[in-house]
Design brief:
Elements lengths: L1 E2 L5 E3 L5 E6 L2 E6 L2 E4 L7 E2 L2 H12 L4 E3 L4 H29 L5 E2 L4 H22 L6 E2 L8 H12 L3 H14 L2 H8 L5 H8 L1 H10 L3 H23 L1
Parallel strand pairs: 1-5, 8-9
Antiparallel strand pairs: 2-7, 3-4, 4-5, 4-6
Length: 238
């Protein structure tokens, strides 16, 4: 059996990659042997499509295996190793983003930013109202706002209905965007992933338009976007 390394990059140690159906899941095999997660569980996927994507990820590696570049593998390992014991903590983490959701904190100036936030964020606020049956409370400036218990409870029920495979995707999307609403909209496939990510970066892009782009910030956004689109793919493959 082949365990995943605890390191981030190791020399490639296999020649062939495939998946094999086993007990209702699709197990990744390297040279015919089961790949294993850091906790030594079989590295497997609940759908053939995700299993094939994991095999593609491993098959695409060159002379070394770069675990930092293998996001689907990292998500699968997290779901398998931690989904049982950390599930409630994941839900609580997502709800913490909802309590201070990016979409709820608007600028009070300049007018151009106010208008852009309203135009790009209102569709997501409207979607949340329909999906959760409660309004998001929105504020402007530095004033904080507390979301209603009805909204939080509706979101909790929605999250609890997800299996741990989908839940880890929503948690990852919330961490990238700073918004539980955007993450849940991604899981629901309610908007294009590119548009959701753009909504999460509205403030930063507005500032770069006014004051010029910063190369370090641009590189960070590029990394975040790549991870977000991989997370979107993860959810589509489930």
């Amino acid at each position: 059996m082949t365990p995943l390394s605890g390191g981030r990059r190791i020399k490639k140690f296999y020649k062939s990659v495939d998946i094999a159906p086993e007990n209702g899941v699709f197990v990744l095999r390297l040279d015919g042997k089961e790949a294993r997660t850091p906790a030594r569980a079989p590295l497997a996927a609940p759908t053939r499509a995700l299993g094939a994507a994991l095999a593609e990820e491993w098959g695409g590696e060159g002379e070394t295996v770069d675990f930092d570049a293998m996001m689907l593998t990292r998500l699968a390992s997290t779901a398998i190793d931690l989904g049982g014991k950390d599930r409630q903590a994941w839900i609580n983490s997502i709800l913490s983003y909802l309590r201070s959701d990016l979409l709820c904190y608007r600028a009070d100036e300049p007018a151009a930013l106010i208008e852009r936030q309203s135009a790009q964020w209102t569709p997501y606020v409207d979607w949340a109202r329909e999906a959760l049956g409660a309004d998001l409370r929105v504020t402007a400036g530095v004033v904080s706002v507390e979301q209603s218990p009805a909204l939080i409870e509706a979101a909790r029920l929605r999250l609890e209905a997800m299996d741990h495979w989908r839940l880890v995707g929503v948690k990852t999307a919330a961490e990238i965007t700073g918004s539980a609403v955007l993450a849940m909209a991604l899981e629901a496939d309610a908007f294009a992933a590119e548009d959701i990510f753009a909504a999460s970066r509205l403030d930063e892009r507005f500032q770069s338009e006014r004051w010029g782009a910063d190369s370090e910030a641009a590189a960070r956004e590029s990394r975040l976007k790549a991870d977000f689109l991989r997370t979107a793919r993860w959810l589509r493959l489930l």
